[in-house]
Amino acid sequence: MTIDDEEAAGAATLMDTLPDRHRTVLRLRLAHRLPAVEVARILGTNVEGVLLLQHAALNLLRRQLAAGAVVDGDNPANGQY
């Protein structure tokens, strides 16, 4: 497994901790690069709702990382840093 693969696996693990709707918004917006208006259409909501969910999802991920959630390969105890 390469470092990129390890980082991707760690990011996927963190994404899996999000509530379904938050995770869906991030995947559609970031992985599939869909505009907010298209995500809103898919989810049956409005653009503001999509942007709020996206913002909330990113904040949840930031808090998890700040609280010590470790993405594979980012653990200082494993000698990489």
UniProtKB/TrEMBL annotation:
Pfam families documented for this protein: Sigma70_r4
Family annotation (InterPro entries): RNA_pol_sigma70_r4, RNA_pol_sigma_r3/r4-like, WH-like_DNA-bd_sf
RNA polymerase sigma-70 region domain span: 14-62
Name of the molecule in the record: Sigma factor-like helix-turn-helix DNA-binding protein
Organism: Rhodococcus jostii
